[in-house]
UniProtKB/TrEMBL annotation:
Function text: Part of the ABC transporter FtsEX involved in cellular division. Has ATPase activity.
Database matches in SUPFAM superfamilies: ACT-like, P-loop containing nucleoside triphosphate hydrolases
Gene Ontology BP, a term: amino acid transport
Span of domain ABC transporter: 12-249
Subunit structure: Homodimer. Forms a membrane-associated complex with FtsX.
Taxonomic source organism: Gordonia soli NBRC 108243
Molecular function in Gene Ontology: ATP binding; ATP hydrolysis activity
Protein name: Putative ABC transporter ATP-binding protein
Source organism superkingdom: Bacteria
Length: 365
């Protein structure tokens, strides 16, 4: 699987990138070093204002860095003339959240537009447009106006238009953020097909973890203009090294219960609770059920969630241990301190009383 860390010429390479808008204030980007390998689908994720769009716009020269340089297919773009940048842009497609289609033109006219600008003959344009509309699955809409299409269909037109000049790189800037979940899934499947069948490198700008989970091979996490995590999707999210990354994965997978949930679980199921990570990992997993059996303790799953991350299982399961006190203590001893294991403290009387008020109040509503 392609990964930004592989050797050879990168499709995109950011070296020591800084970007400052205006004279003062926090830079939009600060010291970014990032390689994107050819054929990779890389997700760039991070909170609002992290610098994702700015980074994307540096790829096709819509912005220029204040410091550092960007190389495309090994070619440093510093000091490129407008003519050279225009040539570069024909090799880089871009799709947007708001589609950016011309409503005065038909679907076919929108897709043909870029080809006309680059001087492709009318006959060749028509042939290419037919091919592209078939590829994205909206050949029957060639003569419609964009306004008559659904959001998903509009995005397909956007994608066909972006592919018209056979770009080697496609940038998708929040391309599914305005779409419903089903249309999002279809659009992501189309992007994956583009990557697999055409070999296009895809840079996906998103704030949605699901998008990363669905199609990206690797991910770069940005926060306040700096790169805080970078690597394979599974590796980055199973071992987050920054708060932003931990926050993203926490929302995406119902894993380790927060304290109020632990208290509520314990109210309904008295006993010791322990959360065990579920990882697709070559190192041996924590086998709590074997430890429980050895010590004549029952271990029952009462909370948890497992999701797919880059096609691999990821999550956490919380077990209730019940049995003789020394048996439970032996099981906890066997698992405590193993990576990702959380042994939950039993709730105090005060915590139980607090929660009880809440539960009663909710029941009274
Ligand atoms: N043209 C501009 N002029 C001035 N400041 C800008 C400009 N473009 C971006 N910025 C600033 O740079 C920072 C990063 O913006 P950017 O749009 O790249 O973030 P983002 O991660 O894409 O955010 P969002 O998810 O909200 O789109 C922000 O503080 C933003 O206000």
């Amino acid at each position: 699987m392609p990964d930004g860390s592989t050797a050879g010429t990168a499709a995109v390479e950011f070296v020591g990138i800084g970007k400052q808008f205006g004279r003062s204030g926090r830079p939009a980007l600060d010291g970014i070093d990032l390689r994107i390998a050819p054929g990779e689908i890389v997700g760039i994720i991070g909170p609002s204002g992290a610098g994702k769009s700015t980074l994307a716009r540096l790829i096709n020269g819509l912005e220029s860095p204040t410091s550092g340089h960007v190389a495309i297919d090994g070619k440093d773009q510093s000091g490129a003339s407008e003519k050279e940048l225009n040539k570069l842009r024909t090799g880089i497609g871009m799709i947007f959240q708001q589609f950016n289609l011309f409503n005065s033109r038909t679907v076919a006219g929108n897709v043909a537009f870029g080809l006309k600008v680059t001087g492709v003959s009318k006959a060749d344009r028509q042939k290419r447009v037919t091919e592209l509309l078939e590829f994205v699955g909206i050949a029957d809409k060639a003569d419609s106006r964009p306004a008559a299409l659904s959001g998903g269909q509009k995005q397909r037109v956007g994608i066909a238009r972006a592919l018209a000049t056979s770009p080697s790189i496609l940038i998708a800037d929040e391309a599914t953020s305005a779409l419903d979940p089903e249309t999002t899934a279809e659009t992501l499947r189309l992007l994956r097909r583009i990557n697999e069948e055409l070999g296009t490198t895809i840079v996906v700008i998103t704030h949605e973890m699901d998008v990363i989970r669905e199609i990206c091979h690797s991910v770069a996490v940005l926060d306040k203009g700096t790169l805080v995590d970078r690597g394979g999707v599974y590796e980055v999210f199973s071992e987050p090294t920054s708060e932003v990354t931990s926050g993203l994965i926490k929302y995406a997978v119902a894993g380790v219960p927060e304290r109020p949930v632990v208290v509520e679980l314990n109210r309904r199921h008295p006993g010791r609770l322990v959360t065990i990570p579920v990882r697709d990992d070559p190192t041996p997993q924590v086998d709590i059920t074997a430890a429980a059996a050895r010590n004549h303790v029952s271990a029952t799953v009462i909370h948890g969630g497992i999701a797919e991350l880059a096609g691999r299982p990821f999550g956490a399961l919380t077990f209730l241990l019940s049995g003789a006190e020394d048996g439970v203590a032996a099981v906890l001893d066997a698992v405590a301190g193993r990576p990702g294991v959380v042994v939950h403290e039993e709730p105090t009387d005060a915590e139980l009383a607090d929660g009880a008020d809440l539960t009663e109040a909710e029941g009274a509503r």
